[in-house]
Amino acid sequence: MDARRLARGEEMIVSEQESATARRTPLFELHRELGAKFVTFAGYEMPIQYQAGIMAEHLQCRSGAALFDVSHMVQIKVAGPDAALGLERLVPGNIKDLAPNRARYTLLTNDAGGILDDLIVTNAEDHLYIVANAATGAADLAHIKAELGTTCEVEALADRALLALQGPLAAQVLARLNPRVMQLRFMEGCDLKLGMIEARVSRLGYTGEDGFEISLAAEQATDLARLLLAAPEVEAAGLGARDSLRLEAGLCLYGNDIDATRTPIEADLAWTIGKRRREEGGFAGHEVILRQLREGTERKLVGVRPTGRAPARAGTEIQSVTGAPIGKVTSGGYGPSVGAPVALGYVVTNAAEIGTEIQLDVRGRSLPAEIVALPFVPHRYHR
Amino acid sequence: MTRYYSKDHEWVEVDGDVATVGITDHAQGQLGDVVFVELPEAGKVLTKGKEAAVVESVKAASDVYAAVSGTVIQANSALEATPSLVNEDAEGEAWFFKLTLTDQSELGELMDKEAYDAFVASL
């Protein structure tokens, strides 16, 4: 074995030196107590897995409930009478017509139509509540401030933690702390008390399962996490399971599957662009994005199922059956619920049709694979 | 038969000029759930320190480098069907391959069980 990679458990264990500059979430001590293996992710020392391991944590989320610490993500508040209209200049989503307590998945775009980040925006009545990615959050904040700062109050909610309770049994667990959570539908969030703890509870997530993201004061996060973990249905899960769950659910990972060089149309995210926004434009990159919406793109994000057992990792070349390069895998691994390898990648559009036979260049061998419909595992949201 | 260990977390069991090679229990614990193992085919000539096999966990792929040089006689086909055997019995049923040793003196650079355990404890 490669001793250095192994000693780090393939970047799973962070040495003390490497972690010296990494930030910690409010739940760090709890993770340690639970026997987490840590990895540095977006400048944070985060649990990649606990004792049970990625496979068990993944399956736990599909069958029961799993608790994730996602406090590394950046929570942003935008307040002001023109907040929704202002934000619409930066995203192609319909924000203006978002009903109170409704949340929407949208994309921060640049003038070339590239994706700067993917966000969840909630109409929190007197403000917009935004959750952005950890690695891009600071840049997002600066970008939003630069565009909206003169008319709106834009601030990072730096003293807030974020927990995700995901899985088919998440609702029954959370309902013990407040039965009102049962009334939330998918992509709906509001402020409510969980026991004695004030929180913003949103019914959404990144696993394909029913579940909740819970924003709360950092100093109360460990108490709530312990309370949730005490439920027999709940086990802690790390970033490893979070990644395999979202991959099976066909959800993009920013930095892998989408970035500033990819547009929403290439990434098959046209569904995030509302009817009014398609007609009116008025968002960063709208010329490119609306043209691509009409005319199509050269490349397209697709689901890939290797035929054999070998996973194809990010960076793997995708080839036609005759060996011509036609694209690249952007996320790939083993899908524990699928029981086989799964991947996302970009291919030339004429090879993007579902059922197309392709090859993957894995360590110099051409392995058979097929373009398949997404998601790999059906979504089970509470609509 | 004598069993040797490498700093790259492999075990090498020697019987005459034939060696059976696998990864250690410590290694499988670090890797986590093994979902795929790519093994060298019979006849392949392995050079000490060069790539010999690949182990894939849910999260990542890791190279296994040859702890000793030799010619592969047989790969453990059980690992193709049941990669999780590596997690269950890394130092037994889940051997990776057998080879004929090219240079017995390479064994002198490996550790015995006691030295390997001390090495792991020092990590």
UniProtKB/TrEMBL annotation, chain A:
Class in the EC hierarchy, top level: transferase
Membrane-spanning intervals of the chain: none
Gene Ontology CC annotations of this record: glycine cleavage complex
Protein name: aminomethyltransferase
Annotated family: Belongs to the GcvT family.
Domain GCVT N-terminal: 27-275
Lineage, top ranks: Bacteria, Pseudomonadati, Pseudomonadota, Alphaproteobacteria, Geminicoccales
Listed GO biological process terms: glycine catabolic process; methylation
UniProt keyword terms in alphabetical order: Aminotransferase, Methyltransferase, Transferase, Transit peptide
Domain Aminomethyltransferase C-terminal, chain residue ranges per copy: 299-377
Domain of life of the organism encoding this protein: Bacteria
Organism this protein belongs to: Arboricoccus pini
UniProt catalytic activity: N(6)-[(R)-S(8)-aminomethyldihydrolipoyl]-L-lysyl-[protein] + (6S)-5,6,7,8-tetrahydrofolate = N(6)-[(R)-dihydrolipoyl]-L-lysyl-[protein] + (6R)-5,10-methylene-5,6,7,8-tetrahydrofolate + NH4(+)
EC number: 2.1.2.10
Binding site for substrate: E213
Any one Gene Ontology molecular-function term assigned to this protein's record: aminomethyltransferase activity
Automatic annotation (TrEMBL), chain B:
Subunit structure: The glycine cleavage system is composed of four proteins: P, T, L and H.
Family of the protein in this entry: Belongs to the GcvH family.
Domain of life of the source: Bacteria
Needed cofactors: (R)-lipoate
Modified residues (N6-lipoyllysine): K59
Described purpose of this protein according to its UniProt entry: The glycine cleavage system catalyzes the degradation of glycine. The H protein shuttles the methylamine group of glycine from the P protein to the T protein.
Example of a GO cellular component annotation carried by this entry: glycine cleavage complex
CDD domains xrefs: GCS_H
Pfam families on file: GCV_H (PF01597)
Coiled coil: none
Free-text comment on the cofactor: Binds 1 lipoyl cofactor covalently.
Protein name: Glycine cleavage system H protein
SUPFAM superfamilies documented for this protein: Single hybrid motif
GO biological process: glycine decarboxylation via glycine cleavage system; protein lipoylation
Lipoyl-binding domain residues: 18-100
